[in-house]
C-alpha cells in the first residue's frame, strides 16, 4: 500500500486531489452477477452494483430478499456460488475475510464481552501488531470520533445500546478500511435514538469520506442516509438508483410499493400510449403526460402509479381544471395524521381504493360517504411496465 | 382451603418424599461410610462407637495407600489434560465446522465410550495394552481412562462453544484476525469456564474409575479405588471407610468447583 495514513482517521483533505479523483473514478467495490444458492433455494440471484469512494449505498428489501446474504458475501463470511466481487480494484475471490480490510458493524454489534470498550477498538490494531503508543492514540481519536471519549475503560455490559453501537462503529473504522458494511445496525434501538444515530453515522461517513454499504428494511432510513439505494426482491436487484429516482420513477410495481405509499392501477396501454384500459373493469384512464418506463408502448401490460400526495380531492360538482385526470369516487375514511389528512376513496369504475393525502390546513374537510372526484395531473403519474 | 392450594400441598408432599428418598439412597450410604470412618474401634461398626481420626492418620501414614493415592492423582491430572487437549478441538469442529460430513456420526463416536458396556471396553483395553506392553503403567492407565473421560469434555466444551455468538468470531475475522487468532483471543477466553469444568469432570471420571483400571493394574501398582477393593477383599478395617471418605471429599470438591464454574459461565448442562 503506497499511501499509508499517518494521522488516525484522517478526514478527506485537500491534498492528493489528483489521486482522489482517480480513485473516485474507479469504484471501491464492484459486484457483478453475484449468486448464492443453498440447494434449490436461490438467496442471491445475479446481483450487480458498484460503490464509489465516499458513497453511501443501502441495500433495501423485505426480510428474505437476500440483502444480508449479499453483505456476508462481500465480507467473506460465505462463499458465492458464482459471480465477481472486487475491492479497491482486486478480486476477492481467494481472499479470506480477515484479509479483506472491510469494517463491519453487526446488527447485535458483536462486541467482545470479555474486553473493555478500549480493548474492543484496539483489537484490529493489535492483531496488526501496531505499536502500543500508536494504538492508544488511534483508539483515543476513534472514541472521540463517535463521542465516547472517557468511555474506554468501560466493560461492554456497562454500556447502553446506543453506546455499544458507537463502540462497534469505532472498532470498524479505527483500522481505516476502504469500505464499511453495516447490517441493520440501528434495528435494536428505539426510534429517537435511531433518528439521532442515523444523522451521526452519515456525518461521520461524510467526514471520513469512506464508502458504506448499509443494509436495512426501513425505507425511511434508507432514503435519509443514502446516496443510492439498491432495492432487492427475492434475491434479485429490482432497482439501483437515488432515493428520488426510486420514489419518482420506480422500475417496477414492487419498488413503487416498497419505497412508499402508492396507488397502482393495473391494465393495458392503448391508444398510442395515451390511455390505460383497467384490467379489473375495462374502464379507460388517461395516461397522457405521464412519465413512461422504457417498455411501455401500446399493448403493454402496465400499471399507473400515483403517489397519495399527488391525488387531489374535488367536490363532485367541481368542473374547473379539465386538464386533470378525474375519477369519481366515494370517501370511505378520513384520518387526521398531523401534517395531512389521509383519505381512502372507493373508485367503482376501476374497482380500486385510492389513497389521497391532503394537507391538513386545506380549506375543505370531506367526511366518509361524500361523493367526490379524485384527480391528479397527468405529469404526476408514472406508467410502469410489468 | 381452596382446591388449588390443596393440589399444591399434595405436589409439595410428593416432592419432599422424592427428595427424602434421593437423600436416603444416594447420600445415606456416603454418610454411613464417613460416620464409620470416624470410629475409635479396630473394626467396622455402625453406628460408630467413639470418635477419632486415627484411621485417617493411619491411612495417611501408610506407604501403600500413599503410593496408590499418588498414582491416582497423577493419572487423573494427566487424563484431565489429555482429554481436554483432544476434546476441545473435537468439540470446536463438531459445533463450528461448516462443511463437516457425518457430523451426527462423529458426535456419536465421541460419546460412544459413555454408552459402551464398560466391561466390554475394559476387556478390549486390557487385551490391547497387554499386547502393546503398556499394562500396569501410568501411560497405559492414562490412555484407557482418557477414552472414558473424553465424552465429558467434548459435551461440556461443545455446550460452551455453542453459547459463543458466532458473530463475535466473524467480527474478529473482519477486524483482521486469522482463524487461529480468533480462537485464541475471542473463543477461548469466552469458553474458559466450560473448558475448566470439562477438565474437572475428566479428572473425576478418572479419579473414581475402577472397572477398566482393575484390568490394567497389578501388584505394586494400584490406583486408590483398586487398592480399596483389594483391602475390602482382604479385611474390612475402618481404614477402608477412611479412604472412601478421602475419595468422596476430592470428588466433591472437584464437582462443586465444576458446578460453580458452569453456573458462573452460564453454560449449564441442565436447566435453563
Protein traits:
heterodimer, A: 386 residues, alpha+beta, Rossmann fold, OB fold (Dihydrolipoamide Acetyltransferase, E2P), 2 domains, six-stranded mixed sheet, 9 helices, 24% helix, disordered N terminus, B: 272 residues, mainly alpha, MetI-like fold, 11 helices, globular, disordered C terminus
Kindly name the structural category of chain B: mainly alpha
Q: How do the helices and strands follow one another from N- to C-terminus of chain B? A: HHHHHHHHHHH
CA-CA gap between termini of chain B: 33 Å
How many domains in all of chain A? 2
Interface with most residues = A-B, 26 and 19 residues
CATH architecture of the largest domain in chain A: 3-Layer(aba) Sandwich
Q: What is the CA-based Rg of chain B, rounded?
A: 23 Å
Q: Please give the share of residues in helix of chain A.
A: 10-25%
Percent of residues in helices of chain B comes to over 70%
Using DSSP, what is the number of strands of chain B? 0
Strand content of chain A: 25-35%
The chain-level mean pLDDT of chain A equals 89
> Quick one: how many beta strands of chain A?
21
The assigned structural class of chain A equals alpha+beta
CATH fold category name of the largest domain in chain A: Rossmann fold
Walk me through this protein's architecture.
- The complex is a heterodimer of chains A (386) and B (272).
- Chain A has helices spanning 17-25, 67-75, 117-127, 132-145, 161-173, 191-208, 219-225, 243-248, 253-258; strands spanning 29-38, 41-51, 56-60, 82-87, 90-91, 102-105, 179-183, 211-216, 228-233, 236-241, 263-270, 275-278, 284-286, 291-292, 301-306, 312-315, 325-336, 340-347, 352-359, 371-376, 382-385.
- Chain A is of the alpha+beta class.
- Chain A has a 6-stranded mixed beta sheet with strand order 6-7-8-3-9-10, with helices on both faces. A 6-stranded mixed beta sheet of chain A has the order 13-12-11-15-21-14. Chain A has a 5-stranded antiparallel beta sheet with strand order 16-20-17-18-19, with no helix packed on it.
- In chain A, strand 17 and strand 18 form a beta hairpin.
- In chain B, helix 10 runs antiparallel to helix 11.
- The two termini of chain B are 33 Å apart.
- Residues 266-272 of chain B have low confidence and may be disordered.
- The interface between A and B is medium-sized, with 26 and 19 residues.
Amino acid at each position: 500500500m503506497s499511501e499509508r495514513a499517518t494521522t488516525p482517521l484522517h478526514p478527506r483533505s485537500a491534498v492528493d486531489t489528483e489521486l482522489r479523483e482517480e480513485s473516485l473514478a474507479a469504484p471501491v467495490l464492484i459486484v457483478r452477477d453475484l449468486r448464492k444458492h443453498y440447494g434449490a433455494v436461490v438467496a442471491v440471484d445475479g446481483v450487480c452494483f458498484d460503490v464509489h469512494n465516499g458513497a453511501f449505498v443501502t441495500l433495501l428489501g423485505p426480510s428474505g430478499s437476500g440483502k444480508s446474504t449479499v453483505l456476508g458475501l462481500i465480507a467473506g463470511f460465505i462463499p458465492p456460488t458464482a459471480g465477481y466481487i472486487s475491492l479497491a480494484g482486486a478480486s476477492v475471490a481467494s481472499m479470506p475475510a480477515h484479509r479483506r480490510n472491510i469494517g463491519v458493524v453487526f446488527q447485535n454489534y458483536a462486541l467482545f464481552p470479555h474486553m473493555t470498550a478500549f480493548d474492543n477498538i484496539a483489537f484490529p490494531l493489535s492483531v496488526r501488531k501496531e505499536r502500543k503508543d500508536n494504538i492508544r492514540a488511534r483508539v483515543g481519536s476513534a472514541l472521540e470520533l463517535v463521542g465516547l471519549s472517557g468511555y474506554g475503560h468501560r466493560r461492554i455490559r456497562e454500556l447502553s445500546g446506543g453506546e455499544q453501537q458507537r463502540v462497534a462503529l469505532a472498532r470498524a473504522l479505527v483500522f481505516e478500511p476502504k469500505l464499511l458494511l453495516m447490517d441493520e445496525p440501528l434495528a435494536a434501538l428505539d426510534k429517537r435514538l435511531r433518528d439521532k444515530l442515523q444523522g451521526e453515522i452519515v456525518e461521520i461517513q461524510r467526514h471520513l469520506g469512506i464508502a458504506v454499504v448499509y443494509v436495512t428494511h426501513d425505507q425511511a432510513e434508507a432514503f435519509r442516509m443514502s446516496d443510492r439505494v439498491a432495492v432487492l426482491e427475492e434475491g434479485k436487484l429490482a432497482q439501483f438508483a437515488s432515493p428520488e429516482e426510486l420514489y419518482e420513477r420506480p422500475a417496477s410495481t414492487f419498488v413503487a410499493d416498497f419505497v412508499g405509499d402508492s396507488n397502482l392501477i393495473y391494465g393495458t396501454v392503448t391508444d398510442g400510449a395515451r390511455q390505460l384500459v383497467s384490467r379489473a373493469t375495462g374502464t379507460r384512464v388517461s395516461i397522457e403526460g405521464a412519465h413512461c418506463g422504457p417498455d411501455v408502448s401500446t399493448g403493454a401490460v402496465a400499471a399507473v402509479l400515483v403517489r397519495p400526495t399527488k391525488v387531489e380531492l374535488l367536490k363532485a360538482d367541481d368542473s374547473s381544471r379539465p386538464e386533470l385526470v378525474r375519477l369519481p369516487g366515494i370517501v370511505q375514511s378520513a384520518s387526521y395524521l398531523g401534517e395531512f389528512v389521509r383519505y381512502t376513496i372507493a373508485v367503482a369504475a376501476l374497482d380500486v381504493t385510492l389513497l389521497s393525502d391532503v394537507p391538513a390546513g386545506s380549506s375543505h374537510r370531506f367526511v366518509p360517504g361524500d361523493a367526490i372526484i379524485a384527480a391528479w395531473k397527468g405529469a404526476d403519474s408514472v406508467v410502469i411496465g410489468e | 382451603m381452596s382446591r388449588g392450594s390443596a393440589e399444591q400441598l399434595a405436589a409439595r408432599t410428593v416432592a419432599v418424599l422424592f427428595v427424602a428418598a434421593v437423600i436416603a439412597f444416594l447420600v445415606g450410604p456416603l454418610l454411613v461410610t464417613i460416620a464409620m470412618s470416624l470410629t475409635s474401634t479396630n473394626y467396622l461398626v455402625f453406628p460408630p462407637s467413639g470418635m477419632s481420626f486415627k484411621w485417617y492418620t493411619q491411612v495417611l501414614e501408610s506407604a501403600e495407600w500413599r503410593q496408590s493415592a499418588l498414582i491416582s492423582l497423577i493419572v487423573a491430572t494427566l487424563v484431565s489434560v489429555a482429554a481436554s487437549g483432544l476434546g476441545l478441538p473435537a468439540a470446536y469442529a463438531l459445533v463450528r465446522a461448516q462443511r463437516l460430513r457425518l457430523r451426527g456420526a462423529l458426535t456419536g463416536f465421541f460419546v460412544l465410550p459413555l454408552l459402551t458396556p464398560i466391561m466390554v471396553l475394559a476387556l478390549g483395553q486390557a487385551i490391547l495394552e497387554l499386547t502393546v506392553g503398556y499394562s500396569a503403567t501410568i501411560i497405559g492407565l492414562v490412555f484407557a481412562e482418557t477414552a472414558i473421560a473424553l465424552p465429558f469434555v467434548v459435551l461440556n466444551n461443545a455446550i460452551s462453544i455453542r453459547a459463543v455468538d458466532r458473530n463475535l468470531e466473524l467480527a474478529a475475522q473482519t477486524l483482521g484476525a486469522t482463524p487461529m487468532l480468533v480462537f485464541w483471543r475471542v473463543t477461548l477466553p469466552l469458553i474458559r469456564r466450560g473448558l475448566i469444568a470439562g477438565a474437572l469432570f475428566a479428572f473425576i471420571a478418572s479419579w473414581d474409575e475402577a472397572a477398566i483400571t482393575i484390568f490394567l493394574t497389578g501388584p505394586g501398582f494400584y490406583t486408590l479405588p483398586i487398592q480399596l477393593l483389594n483391602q475390602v477383599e482382604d479385611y474390612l478395617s475402618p481404614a477402608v471407610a477412611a479412604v472412601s471418605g478421602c475419595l468422596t471429599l476430592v470428588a466433591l470438591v472437584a464437582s462443586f468447583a465444576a458446578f460453580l464454574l458452569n453456573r458462573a459461565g452460564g453454560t449449564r448442562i441442565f436447566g435453563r
